[in-house]
Design a protein that fits this description.
The complex is a heterodimer of chains A (333) and B (316). Chain A is an alpha/beta fold and 333 residues long. Chain A folds into 2 domains: 245 residues, 3-Layer(aba) Sandwich (Aminopeptidase); 74 residues, Beta Barrel (OB fold (Dihydrolipoamide Acetyltransferase, E2P)), CATH 2.40.50. In chain A, the strands form 3 sheets. In chain A, strands 1-2-4-3-5-9-7-8-10 form a 9-stranded mixed sheet, with helices on both faces. In chain A, a hairpin with a 2-residue loop joins strand 1 and strand 2. With 316 residues, chain B is α/β, with parallel strands linked by helices. Chain B has 2 domains: 232 residues, Aminopeptidase (3-Layer(aba) Sandwich), CATH 3.40.630; 75 residues, Beta Barrel (OB fold (Dihydrolipoamide Acetyltransferase, E2P)). Chain B has 7 helices and 17 strands. In chain B, a hairpin with a 5-residue loop joins strand 1 and strand 2. The chains are: A alpha/beta (333), B alpha/beta (316). Chains A and B meet through strand 1, helix 3 and strand 17 of A and strand 16 of B. The complex binds zinc ion. Zinc ion binds next to loops of chain B.
Amino acid sequence: MLDESILSLELPYRDPLDVRAFSFGIDASGKALGEGGDASALERSLCVVAGIRGDEILQTLVCALLVERLEKMERSRTLVPGRLIQVIPCANPASMGIGRRFWPLDKTDINRSFPGSPGGETTQRIAAGLFEKVQGFVYGVHLSSFYLEGDFVPHVRVMLGPGERGNHGSDFCLPYVTHYEPGSFDTTTLHYNWRRCGTEAYSFYTRKTTVADEGIARDAVRSLLRFMSARGLTRKTCQGGHRSFELAEHSLVPVHVPVGGVCCPAVRVGDVVTKGQLLATVRDLLSGRVTARIVAPCDGVVFYHARTPLVNEQTLAFQIVPDGADEVSPSLA
Amino acid sequence: MRKDVSVRELPTGERMRIVKYRYMPVGLSEAEVSCLPRACIVTGMHGDELEGQYVLYELVRRLRSQPQHLAGVVDVYPAVNPMGIGAIERGIPQFDLDMDRIFPGSHDASPFEAMAADLVEDVRGAQVAFDLHASNIYLQELPQIRISKESAQRLLPLARQANVDYVWVHESAVVLRGTFAYSMNCLGVPTLVVKAGVGMRITPEVGEQLAIGILSVLAQAGVWTGPLPLVRSPQVGTGNEVSYLHAEAAGMFVPCVPFGREVEQGQVVGHIYDCGSATVLQELRTPVRGLLFTLREYPLVYPGNLIARVLGGSQC
Ligand SMILES: [Zn+2]
């Protein structure tokens, strides 16, 4: 294992920003990177990035446990020689260290700053520095979180273009692989810019974000190991997993709250529901009176559930994968 | 006349509203004005930008004092991100995305995206629209209008009338497709984005300057027939003639030149200090001669933060 600083930046009245990357691999002569193996001779196979936002704690934990695991695999020679795997558990320690989701000074989102610019604003510089180090990989996985707060059935998102059209999302063996068309605000994400530069990119969504749940994190690590095994990066198979269902994101059925209030859910993500089944009750925050009963609009599986207990009128409370949703072909053409 | 354009209920029962005030020719009914030209002035998209508030005050004061000169309808939307204004937040509280990146909005996602869609629907059909922004809290800006190359032909004649100092015709970045102005321009409403002053402040001169500019554009759109003071003719450029000055150190920036004036090449703009050790970490000099139209307002800087922009100078 190589443990290096890939980016550093002076911060006012704080220690400098120091972004660390852990690299694993075995060179042609059988030497591991941790034993002086030659990293430059390896194919840049997989890069896993987390913690671009400071509250993506679970995502960082997944990477940390992955680092622990890959270090053992490097030692036991269960990595396929000639392949470089790089893990960046926390790309934004300056925010995570003080419990902020976005950049401390101007609240910019580094995941809306790619590809960045080396002579530009602070977050542009960070994005540019980061992007330089994560470029040129065959596969890229960004452990990310959604712009709406909530819990998900674990899945990977695959962007339809630009650039690289490859899709092996089902190799993560997660319940779902979703395909989506990038909106204008997606063009500055790491995912988009990876794809634009020829890396087969995935956004990986764990069930939760701001918690340190080792059980969820270990499941995610196993999913990443399944992908590595299927893509020929490791020699070890990883048992279990799902046969992924691939669907277009627009076929998810949104369920909105009709009134503001306190929302008491009756189901959890992953639950199978039938049309008309109670999903949640909305009560008036002050009188306790039930103001709305939210029921499933169709048979299906609860894919997303808003985490906030208090809801506004029209808050997206659930997304359902409807039974009979079209399974799309993995090809992104 | 005050009207709710979009309303959504909060968990506490309070209603989050985008309101507008309508000004129309005296003696005419709502139905009678529907065929008259209409102008829409939107502000408060970023909750910590307040310069637009005083622009509206100065504008509406003039409209109300000479109602006989109104030949069309003026709709003003003083707070399209009301919760952000109340919380002194640029964005929408409880929401990750910049409001000016979610247009034209959608009814499939959050209430905020739905309110954006309601706003677009309300402004649609106007002869002209303004989206008034201050600068953020970090930079001070001379009044300027930013338009994209594609819309320049249509917008430039209006922008020249708007009494600003600079009209910046930029290459359109893909991300700007999410802006209110982009959506409205696509729907055929010529929409000007004005940026002026600084965040969290009201600069009275800015309010007066832009109120006059808007009146002059309203006159061009046939909405206003009253007397107009002369408007200044702005410099127009593609950004090629703009030079940037960035911080390369982390510390406190203190300017030493007046803002909004001509500067010489190599003139000292200010310093970045480490105050505890009384050390000058960086002396910042203008790269070119020209108009200092952007200047750092917030003292704390990280490496990379913009300190100044200078317009029009050639490197001699
Ligand atoms: Zn703004």
